[in-house]
Amino acid sequence: MATIHEGETGSTQGAEDLIFPDINSCLTVTCACEGGVVIGGHAVLIPEANQLSLVKIVEVLKRAPVRKHLFLIGDNATWDQNLSALTGGTFSNLRAVATALNLGDKVSLIDVEKWTNGGKGMVQIVFHPATKTMQILPNQGGKALHEEKW
Description:
The chain is of the alpha+beta class. The chain contains 4 helices and 10 strands.
């Protein structure tokens, strides 16, 4: 299992899961790639000095092997509304992130606000490369709130 915390990127493949814990106002940007590779980043609204910005995370993902599907999961409404200001004009909206990764027509945009009680709670996002499945789970564990195959 590989865990990606705020401002980090990481990857996994095969039987190893990729986990994004503590998601409420964050944005996860994850590519499912050829060969069962999953690579992603955990963007925060205002990165600290030791954290990667969304623009830097996208730069990392551009170097990923053949990208098949993109997942943009988090507080999508907040990110989409403020993306131009948050990225210094690099991206105008979340779809522009998908376009930058050449995945404009192969993107899942999932807003977690309905499961985080307006940012008061948190969820975790788990990618299972072996089964090509993504799940959104309550942060403390339990039954999947949302599941999607790629």
